[in-house]
Amino acid sequence: MPIRKLLLTLSLVVIASTPAQAQWGSLTGKFIVEGKAPPPERLEVTKDKAVCGKNPIFSEKLVVGPKGELRDVAVWITPARRKSAPDPHPDYLKLATQPINVDNLACVYKPHMEVVWKKRPVHFRNLDPIAHNFSVTGFNTTFNVVVPPNGAHVETFKEEEKAPVPAACTIHPWMKSLILVRDSPYAAASGEDGTFTIENLPASKWDFSFWHESTGYLEDLKIGDEETDRKGQCEIKIEDGKTTDLGVIVIQAADLK
Question: What range does the record give for the signal peptide (predicted)?
Fold first, then answer.
């Protein structure tokens, strides 16, 4: 075989055996409440008042900022039925062994809503000088562990949950929070300013779920040119090298309880 033809053949073999470069994009948006939301309820501290009663404690079920910014809206990628979650971007794999902290501090859960990729261990830390228990009640994972002052319980979740599940302290019954456990890292909760960002998503069309503690799945929610269905889902296109900005997503105060 002539040298030139041999080199051309080898080049084609190399090209054919080289996998296509993965494509990634990001998703962002901001949740705003339109209308007057009810003020947060002040919770009654009934035990260990010397530690828990130093400052007023308010319900965090519905936290709305001064300009309507809605905190703790959960957003996550939802693979089609019987389909697995997409493979994570390499940057996420670097985090796989790093713990996520869920704290009891001043007899309040910090944060109120935590998003957990099940590959990462969760450190349930008691930062108070009194005992607390971490009681998590999911469909696939349930545990109730007493943690002494300045102690911790480490949990690695084996299965994902369809939606955020409650965490509580039964010693101090006003203490409540939520944990969203997913198979993939492609999930987020909106912050104090109402914004969320999910980075390095595989470029494609994906279904996303939208959920809030006060009402559950956010149905009939206008997301760009789409609306969520009764399961709070709608399809969003993620483009390679771009950030898909959903802009301001308006939620009516009357729809939040």
Answer: 1-22
